[in-house]
Amino acid sequence: MNTALRDGLVEVPGALPTFASAGLEARAAMIGRIAADSHAYIAGLLGFSPETQVLVLSEADWPGRTDTPLYGLPNAFNGTLVVAGTEAPFWEQLTEMVAPADQPELARVYGSVDGAIRLGPFFDLVAVHEVAHVFHEGSQHFPRLWLQELFANLCLHSWVAERSPESLPILLTLPRLGAKAAPETFAYRTRDDFERLYSGVGGPNYVWFQFRLQLEAAALYDRRGAAALSRLFEAFRLDDLEHEPVGFLKIDVEGHEMEIIQGAKEADLDFIIMTDHDSPRIFKEGMQGSYEGVLVIRGMEVIKGCRGTADMCASILAIGLANYFDHRPLTFQQVLDEVNGQGGIAFVAHPRGWRDWSLKGITGIEIYDILDDVMDKKWKFPKYFFGILYSYNQYPAETFLSILDRPDWHLQKWDQLTQTQRMVGIAGNDAHQNVRVMGRQLDPYPLSFRFVTTHALAPQLDETSVLSALKGGHAYMAFDLLSDATGFLFAISGGGKEAMMGDELAFAPGQVLKTRLPTPGLIVLTKDGQQFRQCYCSQYSIPLEGPGVYRAEVFLQIQDRWRPWIFSNPIYVR
Fold first, then answer.
1. Which of 459, 477, 495 corresponds to the end of one domain?
2. Which domain CATH number covers 572?
3. pTM of the predicted model as reported, rounded to 2 decimal places
4. What is the mean pLDDT of each run of 10 residues along the chain (574 residues)?
């Protein structure tokens, strides 16, 4: 939570830290009471209480305190709830969505003594929707944006129905009348549009989507009550969000520390890198150093202006930092500059969401991430559910591997980038040990850690050596749950020169490209992103075919399918 956002505001007494623009203290006190009571209500249902602050702002104080440019659109990010303290100009557009025949009903509910329609009471209640978003930040990941918004609307409706039932007409009248607007009135009308653009559809169009979701939430509450809220949350709960390529483990460090170490030992890991969501706690309380022979390296994940899914958002894994820094006032380029200035390394996680590859200071990208792989197969969720139901207890590893296939998009993007710059590839395994379906623990640490790893070719096991290996691309990625890939070699020798993965060398006659596997597999060699040689063998040496960017992929045949096993980092031949 960024307390610097309070600067210049007036503190208003309340159960939650509440701050207001000058002159809006009375309104802030009222909104603060709604936020605090709904916060306590949701905490009672979900069993935890995230740190939260409330900012009630004038239009002049709005810019710079939120990434949402439209004044009057309530929002929440990193524990900060931001709402308008005055009537917003765009609210008037919402009344225009209501048909002329329904305007009298709108006036009966929202009319003021001067005859004008005032939507302030409605948007005061919407503060509860934003409080709900604070609860799922960092503790849960909905696979679709509409599910995330349905959850927030369900929290809002449940609180109003149970704690302020007299306000139900205020909550439901505008959504009911506004949702009746003809879909062709809006440029974007489908849930696919919503997933693709989210709030980018524009203010009234975005609110139209929210109106429809609010009515769905009301219907769900009428059928199931507040229990639907907690069940929806638990269905996708990820209390400990993690990334881990033999070391990239993104986890909220609220306990489980020795479980993590024990899981790493059972998976035969030498090191893990903790990339928790950015918080000063990482640098005050986070694990660092050696724990029972497992090296723990500290890092953090920087997510800016985004609270969506992996196919919409990207982040920076900042590793090897000396000190915490607040990324909120910084651009992505400034974040990269800060990471590199501290001697750290920066990887783009969930690269589909990354928008500007011209930025300087990117060490590399995730070429595989379990979450990305799962989200690519949303249409297969029913199949996975039945696999879990019938097979997981007897065949947990096989069930886990059912999501595995070649990350085509990521590899194509990686090959494109390496044509013009050095770009290290790593893997993220999103190990959680908190995903449960019908009582089954789907992701115990040992299984998650072994699923996919990044092998660093470091001369010794210490932080400096491991980070140097990763920065230099002296690493390869492997699905060790298929078979232990330790001992894999991809190198160039001859002509008086030697090169390993990540290295750059000048082409010379007599150079040989060598690949060696710990067990036979299908070796596929690529040059400049194009496959050009393959061999089913354990050792493969060929003459180097001129300058280019070379890498190797290895596949294992499991029953009737070729499964990806190893991806090398490139060798750059100039």
1. 477
2. 2.60.40
3. 0.54
4. 90 95 94 95 91 94 87 87 89 88 93 88 92 77 78 95 94 93 84 78 86 90 85 61 35 55 83 76 74 86 57 76 84 91 91 86 88 52 44 56 78 94 87 48 66 87 91 92 88 85 91 93 95 94 94 89 93 94
Mark whether 407 and 263 lie in a shared domain. Answer: yes
Q: Six-digit token pair at 101? A: 């025949």
Cα 553 from Cα 414, distance rounded (Å): 13
What's the DSSP call for residue 103? H
Report residue 475 CA to chain centroid gap. Answer: 24
Burial group, residue 314, by CB count within 10 angstroms (0-12, 13-18, 19+): buried
Q: What is the DSSP string of 355-395?
A: --TT-S---EEEEEEHHHHHHTTGGGHHHHHHHHHHHTTT-
Count of structural domains, the chain? 3
CA neighbours within 13 Å on the CB side: how many for 556? 18
Q: Please, what sign has the CA dihedral across residues 143, 147, 148, 154?
A: negative
Rounded distance, CA 557 to CA 534, Å? Answer: 15
Q: Residue 19's pLDDT is what? A: 96
Together in a domain, 448 and 567: no
d(CA 439, CA 136): 21
d(C-alpha 34, C-alpha 159), whole Å: 10
Exposed/middle/buried for residue 13 (C-beta within 10 Å: 0-12, 13-18, 19+): exposed
CA nearest 78: which of 55, 46, 44?
A: 55
User: What is the torsion angle, in degrees rounded to the nearest 10, for the CA atoms of residue 61, residue 66, residue 70 and residue 73?
Assistant: -100
Q: Which structural domain, as residue segments, surrounds residue 394?
A: 238-477
**What DSSP designation does 330 have?**
S
Q: Are residues 446 and 543 in the same domain?
A: no
